[in-house]
């Protein structure tokens, strides 16, 4: 690390001004809060079900509920947001007029909730859009292609707490120093390797996968015909953790459509877009099976999409398989 730690807040304020820096500092506060809650989960009896189901029909965990409340409060109190879309809330939250600002934030407060109870890495995913002034927000302000986001990031709560962020000029990673309570720039200008040695997918769904392309790709990973070594399978089942590893080591993450989830499982606004934005900013690619993921125009806030993202060359391979199928 260079002499003189580059701290997150100082770095952010240097690179941005005013409203955006304040918004980010509130997001960072939310991440620190959730990180503390995740670390104490077992001790504070925060694991287990909260007894309610969310809009996707999934059982909510206590930590999901808490994390959602934390982020809503952190974002509203920043005075810089006008619309909030959370995975946990069926409807978008329109911030009360007195506290409105120009940013719309879409987020999954605690992604990978099936991994909470066993202490595996989970995370928060965030995407940010900007509108002119936020005085008269409309739902169309968040129903925009991911390429219009002004920033995206995630915070991974694992063996370390790591915040990975892009404001459209590359990707930086910051690790929380628990003794200081500050995020330190530990991974400047992250670039994903052009090709990776691993693939990441819930292969247990293979029987139900829609179409042949992902099966062909996975077969190529396991039984390469070009003399290259077989790829390793790495799958945690927490998108933040799987994408984080993919970003740092290279490789490929896919969640295709299947018979259970005909549009894929992952949500466009706060899962697919944020991660696709980071991948592109790091030099990788993100593809839906039909188009560049960031070009998608969502029509509802909890829309889903298949997603294939990762190292540039690995995504090229799956795009080629789709292109070949389209020519038949
Ligand atoms: P969640 O938002 O309800 O936690 O679901 C999203 C998670 C992702 O983190 C992960 O990539 C995926 O679901 C795993 O799904 P599966 O268990 O079907 O492999
Ligand atoms: Mg999620």
Condensed summary:
Helix content is 30%, strand content 24%. It has 328 residues and is an alpha+beta fold.
Average residue pLDDT? 91
Which molecules are bound in this entry? Answer: 2,5-anhydro-1,6-di-O-phosphono-D-mannitol, magnesium ion
> What string gives the helices and strands in order?
HHEEHEEEEEEEEEHEHEHEEH
Going by CATH, the homologous superfamily of the largest domain would be: Fructose-1,6-Bisphosphatase, subunit A, domain 1
Give me the number of helical elements.
7
Strand order of the largest sheet: 4-3-5-6-7-8-9-10
Total domain units: 2
Shape: globular
Distance between the termini: 53 Å
The largest β sheet comes out as:
8 strands, mixed
- Poorly predicted runs of 5 or more residues: 1-15
GO molecular function: fructose 1,6-bisphosphate 1-phosphatase activity; metal ion binding
EC number: 3.1.3.11
Domain Fructose-1-6-bisphosphatase class 1 C-terminal: 192-322
Cofactor: Mg(2+)
Structural overview:
- There is one protein chain.
- This protein has 328 residues and is α+β, with helices and mostly antiparallel strands.
- It has seven helices and 15 strands.
- The strands form three sheets. Strands 4-3-5-6-7-8-9-10 form an eight-stranded mixed beta sheet, sandwiched between helices.
- A hairpin with a 5-residue loop joins strand 1 and strand 2 (59-61).
- The longest helix has 23 residues, at 18-40.
- It is globular.
- It catalyses: beta-D-fructose 1,6-bisphosphate + H2O = beta-D-fructose 6-phosphate + phosphate.
